């Protein structure tokens, strides 16, 4: 009888767990053609990345706060900017430079104080195509997600 009670209790807890799958909603505002542009620094340590721009055509943006953009396996914070009098949401995805960070290895552990621990890789929460992006925003106290499709790619910038 105890085993039956424990089984029912375990089943109840497993069914009440939160969903880890993120739900997409309709785009909450009107926007123009989203574009992305790859860039690369002139030196290996400068790194490379992708800039994403989403022109916002709706005045409804003031009510919600955009948070993050998920694009091509990368995550970046979204900022609102003004370009030629129009609002634009921007996200800058920086790829790691090819070189590894310097690390001090010493017999005296006090000499190793500046070393940074390795960053834990997060699992990317969405399966997206090359021209798709998901943006998270805060609507009241709730985080919501919407997808942008058909992102046009501009000619890459190569810095000297």
From TrEMBL:
**Organism per entry:** Croceitalea rosinachiae
Which UniProt keywords are present, listed alphabetically? Signal
Entry protein name = Lipoprotein
Source organism's superkingdom?
Bacteria
Task: Give the signal sequence positions.
Answer: 1-19
């Amino acid at each position: 009888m105890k085993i039956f009670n424990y089984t029912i209790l375990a089943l109840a807890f497993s069914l009440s767990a939160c969903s880890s799958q993120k739900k997409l909603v309709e785009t909450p505002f009107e926007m123009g053609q989203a574009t992305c542009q790859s860039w690369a620094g002139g030196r290996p340590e400068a790194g490379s990345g992708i800039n994403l721009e989403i022109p916002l055509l709706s005045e409804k943006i003031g009510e919600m706060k955009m948070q993050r953009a998920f694009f091509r396996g990368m995550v970046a914070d979204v900022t609102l900017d003004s370009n030629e009098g129009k609002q634009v949401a921007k996200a800058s995805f920086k790829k790691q430079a090819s070189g590894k960070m310097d690390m001090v290895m010493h017999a005296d552990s006090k000499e190793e104080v500046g070393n940074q621990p390795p960053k834990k890789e997060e699992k990317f929460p969405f399966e997206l195509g090359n021209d798709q992006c998901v943006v998270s925003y805060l609507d009241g106290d709730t985080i919501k997600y919407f997808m942008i499709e058909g992102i046009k790619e501009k000619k890459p910038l190569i810095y000297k």
